[in-house]
Amino acid sequence: MTVRRDFKEPARCRPDLVIGREELFTSARDQLARGGSVLLHGPAGIGKSTVLRALTADYGDAAHTVLRCSATESESHLPFLALADLFGLVLDEISDKLPTAQRTALESALTGRGESTLQRDGLALRLAVLSALRALAASGPVLLVADDLQWLDSASAELLGFAARRLGDTPVQLLCAVRTEGQEYDRHLRASPPDTLAVRLNPLSRAQVSALLDHRGYTDLPRSTVREIHRTSGGNPLFALELGRALGESPTPPRPGEPLPVPTSLRALVLSRLDMLSDEARRTLLVASAGARPTLALLHAAGRENAEAETAQAAQLGLLATEPEGPAVRFAHPLISAALYAEAPVQERRAAHAALSTAASDPIERARNLALATTGTDPEVSARLAEAAALARDRGAPSVAASLGLLAARHTPPDGTPAPDEHRLKAAEDAITAGEVDLARDIAREVLTRATVPADRIRAWEVVIESAGQALGDVDAVFPQALADAGDDPRLLALVHYHLAWRTLIVEGDFSEARQEAAHAAELAARGGDRRTELMSLSFQAHTETLMGHPNAPSTIKRALKEPQDPYVACHHNGVGAARFRWLLMSDQLPEARATITTLLREVRRRGMVESEVHFQRFLAETELRSGHCGRALDLSRESLRLARDSGIGLGASAMLASLAEASGGDLDRALALAREAADRAEEDGDQMYLSRALAALGHAQLVAGDAAAAVGSLRRVRELETGLRITDPARGRWHGDLAEALVRVGEPGEAQDVIDVAREQALRLGRESVLAVLDRAEALVRAAHGDHEGALARLTSVQDRLAKLGYGLEEARAAFALARLRAPRPGPTSYDEAARLFRRCRALPWLRQVDAAAAAGATGAVPVAPQAPPASDALEGLASMERQVAALVMEGATNREIAARLFISVKTVEATLTRVYRKLGIRSRVDIVRLAAGRHAK
């Protein structure tokens, strides 16, 4: 029997819709699956009810009875109301199972007849609630769901707390949500069962807010607007959605420098105490809300003489933060500042900005406030804003520069010099630098509707092309128009042909044609005297030549490094510095590569070049990974991926590298998921180059996870793609050794030798020493498969030494592991010690688990072999690969620890995977999986 009683509209909420709460949701669901209780807590609007409903929908079917209540503030004074919600529909079922005195007291409390009170019937009522829950649990597990626990009437709260503390082993679980500020949930936790897990819901990140807005249909918001929604909402999902809704309903978006429109619902929520302020205090807060970094000194300079007393009054009302932060004036929540500003009349806003335009010490702030205090066009204001934009650009704040540039365009007369569109184009280029590609594209499209000057049109087309990122196929129609606008001007043609080179490489996958386009662009730029475009084109030409294994690559890099240089190109992610870094990395010069990319990363951070920062952080992670610093690589790759998700830039490439780092030093399930995400993005963008990298990462993760057959499938496809793309340098993707090893594991040593021979020819031609060493390691496995045991051992010993000298720590450890495995038929207890030491030095946790499993197998006299995916029964169709493997091993009778050892994953990962298996198969325990196996064998 399942009983549901809700005062809020019930909503079944699938777990995959709990945006930004996936880990929290899994933790709470696992706690419920273990028979425990959960207390969700956090501030208003943070998403507690959403998570509560999702958990109830996901786990509720496992309970025999589900009791619900949802309190409200207006009804919190009514005694026993929550109790009536919970037990009203089951009273008839359990009343005859209660002692007479308890039944009478409970019926009186639930029906209102008899005027039962805690003072008079306290003990009988307490025991009645406890007995009622035990009676319900006698028929099966009971789940008690309570939302907004803070509004529970005191009588019901007291009775439920009494029962919860005394349930013992009775199968009754509580799933509750309570509004708290900070961490003050102890009182509610003390009234919960002893095994309750308290789960705090924290603010969402910017990427999570973006995903939430997308899910709710607000998909056309520029990233700059999403960033402002995140800042204003403070990461609160309710506030973010209300702000998104207000923007969706607004006929015109806010202009640059203006705050977001705050809907009436949120104004009422956060400004309920505003009427208690004096008029002067309210004006002081308005000035503070109009300032970027308000302080008491700034308020005084803006004419607010009694700022101390007025801000103290606001702090007492909860409008300002009360904790000491020096002279800063900080609102208790960003939304209070936004709502206060939105509530103020336009004239009062302008007066506040006018006061700040002279009071602020920073020239950028003075210019911004002057613009917001001024109506109409004004050449002097426009000039001040252009100067401020240049200053912001020099400070490494291109996003601020873009906002100021748009304000400058707004205040520039139509016949001004520079023209309004000049300011707009500069703002678009600043937005590209800041990673705000949506804003940049919108500005460029607007300019193209009226621009007639060819140079302006080409600049605008450049922005449109660059804002497409890797999806250059989406802007195919742009290139003929841009070529027509360029006419016969070599400078303008050079820009178009440079972008055509990228399109040819990414969309068509033609390295030879892309190289020729880049060389043509460099020639045109040199003829037109455009050194920046010449350098960018030479850098791209060097990049393609490096990947092709073209003999001209070193000389092209030298040409690109000749003076004069351009500071922007030197640190651009497709510029000279990046081309040199790629060459160093592929040439096994790891210390020089690390020094180069570290310098570049420092410079792009100083300049605020977000797109370049995403790529350079990934490049540094790749360098650390090759050096065997897996922990450092994991941290860097995760940060790069976070930045990519936050900015919407380089997502596929960052996911690909993060997958490699996770497979080497982190979590294998995450590595597999990230590789598939990267491959999906590359296919969606039509980017064959990154598709091959993503599939190589997937094949590597599958190999580490022990699924050699899947690794062979993925890596064979990489081989086909790179053959078609004519990528000949094996140092580019470094997948050849993995494919050969996987082929040996699945019993195809002949094909493995073919892979090695083809890659070795190119590696010898290009002098790729580390690639040759890895190929020799794979060939040793081929020799062992053919029975040449001694030859394989000799080859591996040599390989390990060579890799150590080259500085490839992880590959050195893999060679030591292969050596230990070949010696395993007659091992001693320390035969794997060297491999374990090297992997531990690298912090290569997935590999360490493999060593532990192999050592354990050797201690029992078993010959360690690479784990293969267990056969899955028909009943397991529909499960993910890892889920099928775990379930199949359970069918064989393996314990969680044995499964972890065989699949090279943690026991915790096994437990979480089994929880997902139970849910997908509609079962509750390992016993049910064994029954599935018995049913399969009976057929």
TrEMBL record:
Pfam families hit by this protein: AAA_16, GerE
User: Which keywords does the record carry?
Assistant: ATP-binding, Nucleotide-binding
- Domain annotation HTH luxR-type: ranges: 872-937
A GO cellular component term found in this entry reads: cytoplasm
Recorded superkingdom? Bacteria
InterPro entries, per database record: AAA+_ATPase, AAA_16, P-loop_NTPase, Sig_transdc_resp-reg_C-effctor, TPR-like_helical_dom_sf, Tscrpt_reg_LuxR_C, WH-like_DNA-bd_sf
Instruction: Quote the SUPFAM superfamilies the UniProt record gives.
Output: C-terminal effector domain of the bipartite response regulators (SSF46894), P-loop containing nucleoside triphosphate hydrolases (SSF52540), TPR-like (SSF48452)
Q: Which GO terms describe its biological process?
A: regulation of DNA-templated transcription
Q: Which GO terms of the molecular function aspect are on file?
A: adenylate cyclase activity; ATP binding; DNA binding
PANTHER family for the chain: TESTICULAR SOLUBLE ADENYLYL CYCLASE, TRANSCRIPTIONAL ACTIVATOR DOMAIN
This protein's name = Transcriptional regulator
| Biological classification of the source | Bacteria, Bacillati, Actinomycetota, Actinomycetes, Kitasatosporales
